[in-house]
UniProtKB/TrEMBL annotation:
Gene Ontology annotations for the cellular component aspect, listed alphabetically: chloroplast membrane
Molecular function per GO: transferase activity, transferring alkyl or aryl (other than methyl) groups
Protein name: Uncharacterized protein
Membrane topology: Multi-pass membrane protein
The entry's keywords: Membrane, Transferase, Transmembrane, Transmembrane helix
Family stated for the protein in its record: Belongs to the UbiA prenyltransferase family.
Transmembrane segments: 198-227, 247-269, 281-302, 329-348, 355-374
InterPro entries per UniProt: UbiA_prenyltransferase (IPR000537), UbiA_sf (IPR044878)
Cellular compartment(s): Plastid, Chloroplast membrane
Amino acid sequence: MDRAYVISSPNVSLLKSGANFWGRKLSTKSFYYPSCRGSKASENKINVQIQYYPLKFQPSTFNHRYKSIEGGQKYAENNTKYVVKAVTVPSSESESKSSNSKNTGDSIKNFLAVLYQFIYPYAMYGQFAATISATLLAVEKLSDISPLFFIGLLQALSPHLFLDVYVNGVNQVFDLEIDKINKPYLPLASGKLSFRNCVFIIASSLILCFGLHLMIGSPALISYILLNFILWTGYSVNVPFLRWKQYPVVSALILFVSSTFIFPITNFLHMQTFVFKRPVVFPRSLIVSIVFMGFYSIGLALSKDIPDIEGDKQHGIDSFSMRLGQEKVFWICVFLFEMAFGIVFLAGATSSSPFWIKIVTSVGSFALASILWYQTKYVDVTNPASTRSFYSFNWKLLMGAYFLLPLTR
């Protein structure tokens, strides 16, 4: 049975003295009572609030008469009713459990948000779109869009995610001091992600990337992983004979080779030879994709360094933006992007595809080129935030172009 023990206090003891409580309210007091259930006792906290209200002309067990000795004046009867309110407050143990559960959930959400920012989401989406586009180049007829195709697509997509995490992570580790100037918002540079956790994520991603590719067993995908691992490790790692990003021509060449040749060709061959078991061929759409990416990848390589000129200058990285100036490099990039969209426009207009496909590719590429040109008037080449936004915007336009390329047959 539950038992409650009221702890006496000065306010409660006034009940016995007969003092006047008219218009007053007693303060709230807290006490504990043990609840015995079985052999184990728990403790609950009770808030006791004593209130009293005057009830005139009603009998009460606490009626008292007083006379003034000095003035002989009678005082009216004082009738007071006392109400005790008890409110159960959660015990400290349950509060602690609720708080710990909330803190754990918040920690997981924060970590996922930091990880999302760590992997450069706009680049990841671009790689996913590029993989889908390259695998669609191997589709010859509508019946090829089958469960077999989606299995092959999943085989190509899954390991690419881990490779992107590795590439971006290695770059952030060795660019830590530069990023504190150029990109202080990045998780590692801002301190949101510790160096130890960053290294753990990078190492785990690399192991998973190679492990998955070896399990799948596609020669084209294994070649893709090995070549990009060598190129992008040499691009970022600061050891003798490496750190190729400090040489502007070599830096642009790495992105050009990876995006123009390695990525589309290996993903196309994976679907063509490993999934569909067909002989090696190079269709017109693959050639158009290679030429398109030749222009677009150089534009991306040059525009990437425009907002980073301050940090590059302090750390001795001689980029094209340092040599030629930000505005000149900006307009070179715009010219390269427009040339790339022009290639898709011509390829779509002269393709042997049905008329509606010609309309889609031509109008689509023209629309992307127009959007790009319209956006240029809002770019301030001296503002890092503006040029960085322009760089990520070009990745979004690239994703739109990726879905037009398989139609240029």
